[in-house]
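Write out a record, fold above all:
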Amino acid sequence: MRIVVALGGNALLRRGEPAEAETQRRNLSPVSGTLASLSAQHELVVTHGNGPQVGLLALEANAYKAVHAYPLDILGAESQGMIGYLLVQALSGELRHGSVVALLTRVVVDSDDPAFARPTKPIGPVYSEPEALELAEQNGWTVAPDGPFFRRVVGSPEPRRIVELASIIELLEAGSIVVCAGGGGVPVVADGSRLVGVEAVVDKDLTAALLAADIGADRLLMLTDVPNVERGWGSYASSPIRDVEPAELRALSFAPGSMGPKVEAACRFVERTGRTAAIGALDQLEQVVSGIAGTQISPAVREFADGLHTVGAARAGS
C-alpha cells in the first residue's frame, strides 16, 4: 500500500512536557522502528504537526529585540527543517535498506481566506488562563482554551495546492520514505507568477488529507497523543469511537483547534477516495495500521458500492 502517516506536533511534544530537543528524540524513538518496518512493506510518506515547535521558535524570536521578529512562514520553514531532521535521524537509524528524505514543502492558500481574520490554530506552549491573558495583552496575541489550559492561536487557512507534489511522488517512487508537508506546509499565496509567504499556520491534518488524495494513497493515518476520537470528549459520558462512517462523524461536534480538523481531514479523504482513514495514538501505530486500535473511518458500504456501480456504468458507456 501507499500510506500517509501524519504525526501530531503534540505527539512529539506532549502537553506539559519541556519543549526540548531530547524530549522529541525520546518520543520519536519508540515509533521510528515501527515506521521503518512499515516502509519495508509499503510506500511511506510521513508528515507532521509543528504547533508546539513553531510557537517556541516564535517566542525565541520575540526574545531577541535587535531585529524584527521573523514571520510565521519563515518560522514554519524552520520547524519543518528541525522536525524533518529529527525524523530523518530516527528513521535512518532503523532502516535496513532504502533512504529517508525530508523535503521543504510549500502549500498554496487563498489570500482572502476568512481564517486569517478568525484565528483557531493553537501554537506554542500551554499557559494558565491568567498567564495567557497577560501575554496576549503584551504581545497582541489571540488566545483560546486548549483542554484545561490556554494557548496562542493564529489563522489557519485552507490548503489548496501542494507546490512540491511532483517531487514528493518522484522521491516516493524512487523508494524513499518521504518526510514532507510538515506543519501543514509553508503557507504561500499567488502574487502574479510569484508565491509569497503569509502569516499563518496551515492545519497539518487538512494538508495530509489533500496530500494523501493527490498521491493516490491507500490509507491516511493521523497519530496524536490520544487513542481514539471520543463522543462527549471531556465529559463523564465520553466514549471511544471505534469504527465509523464520515456522515456519522460529521453529525458530532469536536474542538475546532484540535480534534475537529483531524475528523474533517479523515472525512474528506474517505469521501474523496473511498478508502480508509484512521485516528489514533502514536504509540499504537502497529495496531492502528492493522485496524484493531484507533478510530477507523471508512465509507458507508452501500454508498461506496453505489459509487462503484456508477463508475462501472460510466466506464462501460465510454
Remarks:
- Confidence is low (pLDDT under 50) at residues 301-318.
- The chain has one domain: 2-317.
- The two ends are 29 Å apart (CA to CA).
- The longest strand covers residues 121-127.
